[in-house]
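haha ok so turns out i had the wrong file open the whole time. this is the CORRECT one, sorry everyone. sequence first:
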Amino acid sequence: MQRDQKELFEALVNVIAMLRSDNGCPWDRAQTHETLKRTLIEETYEVVEAIDAAVPEKLKEELGDLLLNVMLQAQIAAENQHFTISDVIETLAEKLIRRHPHVFGNVQADDADTVVKNWEEIKRQERGYEDRHSVLDGVPDALPSLQKAQKLQRRAADVGFDWEELSDVVAKIDEEVGEVKASIKANEPDATEMELGDLLFTVVNLCRFMNVQAEEALRKANRKFTARFKWMEAEVERRGKSFEDYDLAGLDAIWEAAKKHV
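then structure:
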């Protein structure tokens, strides 16, 4: 039988309140909005890993851990008489209805791009956004750098500051590579760092232009490298040797073998 969602949620609220009570858990009682930031980020990434693993039970568990952080944040706010979890839910529901006029109103939106543009336009008209004078305002500083770069670039592109052709972006990457090489040749570490940043930023722009998520692309590259390197380690061990027994050419040969297996 399907359990009543309202009862389940109320039970969870009571559990969180108990954990934070005088007779509750010392760890939970010690938490603040600030101390929970680290676990919030960690739990979010664990949810992403569970999605990548495509294991529903794992995803269920990790979503619960993420929800725990949300519930603790709301409980702390309630104790300080700032807001409650009910206020959070009500605010979210109102926002979703307001920002989806194509669902709850009579606005037409036939594709995802139109939905996003409408969403941003509605958001700019809402209370609390009056101080955002630049289209780049509101992009969180805490975002991973690749993700932030892509979001900044998308905001700029929305107002017309964008490449016209894919070949233009590729040419810009070639230009940035040249500038990196020039700074290395000139033995200018600070300039090299700056030029490498420009190169990375332009590569992210290529990802955006091709509708590829830069953060996701690099995550996949990381996983691929990890799998291949671990295959190398296993192969070296299988041969009864260590990495120190090989020169770079020998290790590269094993790497090429790994690419055929992983």
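The two ends are 45 Å apart (CA to CA).
again sry for the mixup
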